[in-house]
Amino acid sequence: MTTEDFAALELRTMQSAWRALERRWGLSPTERRALFPAGGDDLADPPADTEARMRIQIEIGYRIGMPEDMLRDWLRTASPVLGWLTPLDVMSGSRADLRGLRRIVEAGFAS
C-alpha cells in the first residue's frame, strides 16, 4: 500500500465515523449544511475546511458521554457556558469556535 492509499483509507474511515455521528446526533439536512459552510462533506475529497471540521466534531462526539436522547436535546439547547448559543450553533461558527467547544467538552461540561 502506498502513502496515498493509506491517506485515502484514513479519510474514508473518518468519513464513516462522521456519518455514524451524524446519525447519533439526528442532524437535519439544514443542520448538516450549517456545520460545513464549505460543503463537500459527501465528497471523496472534501475541502480542507470540511475535513478539519469533521475531525473536530468527531473528537467532540467521542467525548460526550450522554444517552442519545439527552445528547440530541443538549445539542439544540442554548447554554450560558456557550454565550447562550446551542452547541450546534457553536459548531457552525469558525474552526476556533469548534476547538473552543472541544475544550469545554474535554473539561467535562457536556457529560
Fold and architecture overview:
There is one protein chain. This protein has six helices and no strands. 64% of the residues lie in helices and 0% in strands. The radius of gyration is 14 Å and the shape is globular. The model has no long low-confidence stretch (mean pLDDT 92). The chain is mainly alpha-helical and 111 residues long. Helix 1 (3-25) packs across helix 3 (48-63).
Global geometry: globular
Order of helices and strands: HHHHHH
Helix content: 55-70%
Radius of gyration: 14 Å
Total count of helical runs of at least 4 residues: 6
In short:
The chain is mainly alpha-helical and 111 residues long. Helices cover 64% and strands 0% of the residues.
Task: Explain the layout of strands and helices.
Elements: H1 3-25, H2 29-35, H3 48-63, H4 68-75, H5 87-91, H6 95-106
Helix pairs in contact: 1-3, 3-6
Q: Can you give keywords for this protein?
A:
globular; 64% helix; 111 residues; single chain; mainly alpha
